[in-house]
Amino acid sequence: MIYGLVQPDAGQMVLRGAPYHPHRPSEARQKGVAMVFQHFSLFDALNVAENVALGMENPPPMGELAGQIRKVSSTYGLPLDPARLVGDLSAGERQRVEIVRCLLQDPKLLIMDEPTSVLTPQEVEILFRTLRQLSAEGTAILYISHKLEEIRSLCDTATILRRGKVVASCNPREKSARELAELMVGQILTPPARAEHTPGELRLEVSGLSVASPNPFGTSLKNISFQLRGGEVLGIAGVAGNGQDELLLALSGEITTQAGRVKIKGQPAGNLGPNERRALGLVSAPEERLGHAAAPDMSLSENALLSGNLRQGLSSGGFINWAKVETFAAEIIKAFDVRTPGTHVAARALSGGNLQKFVLGREILQNPDIIVVNQPTWGVDAAAAATIRQALLDLSAKGAAVVVISQDLDELLEVADSFAALNEGSLSALRPARGLSVDQIGLMMGGAHGLPETPALAPKPEEARL
Amino acid sequence: MIRLEKRPTPSRTWVAVTPVLAVLLTMIAGGLMFWALGKNPFEAIRTIFWDPLFNEQFAAYSRPQLLVKAGPLILIAIGLSLGFRAGIWNIGAEGQYIMGAIAGAAVGLYFYPEPGWHIFPLMVAAGLVGGMLWGLIPGLLKVWFGTNEILVSLLLVYVAESLLAAMAIGKMKNPDGGGFPGSRNFAKYEASANPELIAGTGMHLGVVTAFIAVIAAYVLLQRHMLGYNIRLTGQAPRAARFSGVSPAALVLICMGASGALAGMAGLFEVTGPGGQISIDFASGYGFTAVIVALLGRLNPIGILLAGLLLALTYIGGELAQFMLSLPKASIQAFQGMLLFFLLALDLLSNYRIRLARREVAR
Amino acid sequence: MNLSAIDFWILTASLIVASTPILLAGLGELVVERAGVLNLGVEGMMITGAIAGFATAVHSGSPLIGFAGGAAAGAAMSLIFAVLTQYLLANQMATGLALTLFGLGFSALVGQGYVGAKPPMMGKLDLGPLSDIPGFGVAFFRHDLMVYLSFAAVVAIWYFLSRTRAGLVLRAVGENHDAAHALGYKVVRIRILAIMFGGAMAGLGGAYLSLIRVPLWTEGMTSGAGWIAVALVVFASWKPGRLLLGAWIFGGITVLQLNLQVAGVQIPTEYLSMSPYLITILVLVVMSAMGGRKAKGAPGALGRSFHATH
């Protein structure tokens, strides 16, 4: 709304003492408001300079602009090559493009929506240094985030929103993270219980797995190897776009390789498709719920059939037994407390958390020996996230091998026994999760992003203001 | 200000009502078009939609024609609808129809003038295979190289048309035809004829096959995993791959099946109502079938009704040509218009239309 | 058989004439697709342009006014497509197809009275000494105004797309309409303008067929030229320069097979007249077989409907 994309129903905004009601983003930009989006507003097939030009009101000629980009980006410790295609950049670099685009317009107010969700801890440090520097130079920063530690370390005032309403305003440094969390969620949270267990037999072996990405701007997997036993939970961390999707596809069977690269319970399975792997006991849940894990316009029962057909015996001789499908769908809804009027509802009508519970429930209820999930709690409310994590832990307690790919480090530390990080398609060595610090994980995740050590920019104690 | 809001599930009512509404709007717009051409709009609409069925003078000839024309339309459209549902756009059914006819005709001419009950089934099989292979060309090119199947299948129509002309005046020309282009008449050669099964109904084997295809497609889509996979691929291709559907296999199945049905339609036509391979054998059924498939909402029952309706416009168009000297092409324009209205009204099934109220700030 | 009757320079000259209709239509479609819209109705817009251009030229007696009429009719047809796909969010493939079916029928309807009519002739531009260059001059400098305009259009569209801000915005819209919308660009408005430009160019291409290349009006006279224009855009990897090359290759094949027919080669004419379509398919296959599919420059949002949710 501040950026002029949406018009207010009521009330007014004041910018630098004058009433402010932008009708469109260009107007907002003219008034000195710039925004860095959560989901990047970038164009893969255009180069950095063209992307920057698109976000500016009156961009100078391309040659001149390229020079400016180099200058600004080095001033703030965000190196960028104006001629590179944005699609080839890493997530961190792409965010730099957004920030540089904002900075070139000399903003008075910079809006950032969840900027760190795609960054390694080290990249976050660099970003914070830049923001502190900007704030010291007199730019106001509106920082939207659900990561409480970030707010506490960066911001001067915090306003907490719950369901579109302001519930509190405070100085975040005077509150603990827990107090802030409870303001945000509105209830007291309990971490999931972790049962003691002994590792079982070898379930999943991956050796020397290299896969080209099916996506032109995706990340190819490079020589990935790991082993996983029954009852074990492997957490795989990594910043978005480092091969998570590709790893899931290669494990689920959507991408096939040589047979020996992936072994399920000792059987070579690299060349098998998703259904053959399901038959061997491996199920998976991709990150994208709508369109990948579930068909948006199909009913929940049809979606139950989507991956449940084989293990649940929902069809015979190719003919579907709809009564059985209904029963299975109803079972998922009941077991995972999916809030929906019934099995006939289209998947797209469910909220993110409910659909995620349905999707994971569908896989978990198939009693797999191995389950691979990618970002199981992405965009899911706290209560549903807790249910999902608990269900994964319960499954592992029953002896299944669990692979959790996630960007959420806290989540991984909560559920994982062993831990590895994906970086530009390579997987680090597995480490026991117990005793790892966030810093160590950050180094595992980051290392190879080509981030130069930025010169110390002398962060001032006085920080972001609103 | 008008705003659109996506419905959580497509409205079933609107899905059923929009085709009817589209037909009504087309009648109005078509009437206006005829009026602009200096014809009486009411008379024109009546001649197209009413007279073929209920006017004593014409109905005796027209009524059987309804099934004769609807048969191939339905048969082709059923095949196309499978692909369209899966997001595979075979636009070249006209070519597959021609190739089916040529392949079947070749078998028939090979046996001529032998008698034998086995000849006709062999011709049907040849027609099926001919159409299927022609349909598999764009399918295989898509699977192997990722070539756009819309363009290839369409360009192959022009190739098939040239081939048809070459056959009619060359290899398949009737040696007893007095030098006129066109093959021997299959309808008059007993072993290859596809006659009316019940006199005066227009019902021939092609029509029967079309009805069987409707039922088979219905069962396939409602009850069978292949039908489910087709629907899934069309709605969410990535989810289909996750589910274990092989996109390549599905492309080949859909292109092959739609080609086979179109080829059979061509064969039944050349041995029945068409009679012979001639330069003007192809009459645009392959393209009209696209409209039939879409108008029928890719639903087998819908296609059955839409096929009958468009067959009616064909016959009505001929009648109007004869009675009101309306140009033949006006029917094609009419059919195009029908598709426009249908596509425009589709909005109502997927979106709710909201007036004025501004959106709540996010 | 007499192949010596085929003169290389005259062949080149007729190649250019034969390629002009698809070049014009292809350039229009290229801009449309760069804006992220797949309009498969080129054939329908071309044939509408052909009859409208023919009719206006016959009535006004001026081929130039005829071309304007053709362009206007093509743009009007494309407006139907624009409204259906941009406001009513109809499927672009189905709508394009409907446009083609409607255009073929509608043009035949309107064109009834014009079968057999003779259009006013368009004079060749006299380029003085350039036209007199032996060989080369015959091939390149003895054409009508439209041929030179089509060359100019290649350069202008290249400049527009790669060097101007408006062109950059158009490409951005075609690449990622959500991001373009987030930055405040009017996705729908830009696309409608692009679609109308594409319609006008297809109309010009059609008018060139009926006024200069043939020059007569017959039903269905485009016979697939519009589809070939769409295929050319893929061949050209969405680049104007390569589109010119593709149009020439196609024009060359058309002219060559016509000349072979005239020269009495021992192949039935029906087989020769298949060749342009077969070659187009072959070119499509080669293009799609080479290199990564998406990486060849297809606009990211091609064919997808855009509906702003906020």
Describe the structure using short key phrases.
heterotrimer; B: 362 residues; mainly alpha; ABC transporter involved in vitamin B12 uptake, BtuC; two-stranded antiparallel ribbon; 2 strands; 70% helix; disordered C terminus; C: 310 residues; 13 helices; globular; transmembrane helix (chain B); transmembrane transporter activity (chain B); transmembrane (chain B); ABC transporter permease (chain B); ABC_transp_permease (chain B)
Would you write up a description of this structure?
- Chain B: It is a multi-pass membrane protein.
- The complex is a heterotrimer of chains A (466), B (362) and C (310).
- With 466 residues, chain A is of the alpha/beta class.
- Chain A is built from 15 helices and 20 strands.
- Chain A has two domains: 13-185, 3-Layer(aba) Sandwich (Rossmann fold); 202-435, Rossmann fold, CATH 3.40.50.
- In chain A, helix 10 packs parallel to helix 12.
- The two termini of chain A are 16 Å apart.
- Chain B is 70% helix and 3% strand.
- Chain B has helices at residues 12-36, 41-49, 51-54, 56-85, 93-111, 119-145, 149-169, 205-223, 225-235, 237-243, 247-271, 285-295, 300-323, 329-350, and strands at residues 2-6, 351-355.
- In chain B, strands 1-2 form a two-stranded antiparallel sheet.
- Chain B is globular and about 70 Å long.
- Chain C has one domain (3-296): ABC transporter involved in vitamin B12 uptake, BtuC.
- Chain C is 71% helix and 0% strand.
- The model of chain C has no long low-confidence stretch (mean pLDDT 87).
- Chains B and C meet through helix 6, helix 7, helix 12 and helix 14 of B and helix 3, helix 4, helix 11 and helix 13 of C.
List the helices and strands and how they pair.
The complex is a heterotrimer of chains A (466), B (362) and C (310).
Chain A: E1 13-15, E2 18-20, H1 25-30, E3 33-36, H2 48-54, H3 62-75, H4 91-103, E4 109-113, H5 121-136, E5 140-144, H6 148-154, E6 158-162, E7 165-170, H7 177-185, E8 202-211, E9 221-229, E10 233-237, H8 244-252, E11 262-264, E12 267-268, H9 274-280, E13 282-285, H10 300-312, E14 315-316, E15 319-320, H11 322-335, H12 352-364, E16 370-374, H13 382-397, E17 401-405, H14 409-415, E18 418-423, E19 426-427, E20 431-432, H15 438-446
Parallel strand pairs in A: 3-4, 4-5, 10-17, 10-18, 13-16, 16-17
Antiparallel strand pairs in A: 1-2, 6-7, 8-9, 8-11, 11-12, 14-15, 18-19, 18-20
Helix pairs in contact in A: 2-3, 2-4, 10-11, 10-12, 11-12, 12-13
Chain B: E1 2-6, H1 12-36, H2 41-49, H3 51-54, H4 56-85, H5 93-111, H6 119-145, H7 149-169, H8 205-223, H9 225-235, H10 237-243, H11 247-271, H12 285-295, H13 300-323, H14 329-350, E2 351-355
Antiparallel strand pairs in B: 1-2
Helix pairs in contact in B: 1-2, 1-14, 2-13, 4-8, 4-9, 4-11, 4-12, 4-13, 5-6, 5-7, 5-11, 5-12, 6-7, 6-11, 8-9, 8-13, 9-10, 12-13, 12-14
Chain C: H1 8-34, H2 42-60, H3 63-87, H4 92-111, H5 129-132, H6 136-140, H7 145-163, H8 165-175, H9 177-182, H10 187-213, H11 225-235, H12 240-263, H13 269-289
Helix pairs in contact in C: 1-7, 1-10, 1-11, 1-12, 2-3, 2-4, 2-10, 2-11, 3-4, 3-10, 7-8, 7-12, 11-12, 11-13, 12-13
Protein name (chain B): ABC transporter permease
Keywords (chain B): Cell membrane, Membrane, Transmembrane, Transmembrane helix
Main location (chain B): membrane
